[in-house]
Amino acid sequence: MNSIPTTALGLAEQGLPLLPLRADKRPFGNCRACDDLACGGRPNMRIPGPCACPWPCHGWAAATTDPSIVGSPQWAEAWRRARAIGYHPGGAGVTVVDLDNQAAVDWARSALPPTTTVATTRGQHWVYRGTVRSMNAVRDGVDIKSTMSYARWLGTGAGTMVDVPSAVHELVKVKAAARPVPRVVAVPAPAGGGKCPHRSPVYLERGIAMAEQRISTATSGVHAAVYRTFLAVLAAHGRCGCLTETHIGRLFTAAQAKGESPRHCTDAWANASTALGM
Is the pTM of this model over 0.85? Predict the structure, then answer.
């Protein structure tokens, strides 16, 4: 019998912002109403919680503490299919230092103060009080999961939780500074001319913010993720004239921050435009 739904409901009642995870440890995909950002995304992606639809959409941002949502028919169906419970560390006011192998654990023991420790399949989660910017691969085998991210719930762990140490803040700062500076690429915005289906300018802003988020959280297949995101944005906003070069620049910046070259960004945009007949 799957005990995940019962466990999840109990954790939500204790105030942990949760979401169901698939067998590959990733969130479930968006429902049809939210696919390709058709719903416009959440009003503020920095605040966890479900979107207007009843399903657990939008990854980490779906995390909720509301038992009525966690136990709703739609979420209950997702929990039955889930193989793990995820939570939003930032929403819970904590930071998870994800140590993916023994070498990473050994490093943490020498470089970080002891805190609550949770065993994982290959290593450990060191959980600190307080939030930081999430960042993957801050060093070999070490990811930082806090704001705008999710982690697996693997139990309460052992040890007394302490504040996020300065060493973790420094790791994030150094990793962020080491990322290549995005190069501005001038791409003309679509000419438009079609009927605008948007309810308000906020709808477009939500769509662009969701697209940036989709790119920035891609963990594999970045080329494909960038192309699919560009395709979705153009399909939703490319024919009415609302999409500006500023919006396109934001998408290119997000893609380059994930390691895409300006040329790959331009090619992906051109290919998406061609696929849609623009």
Answer: no
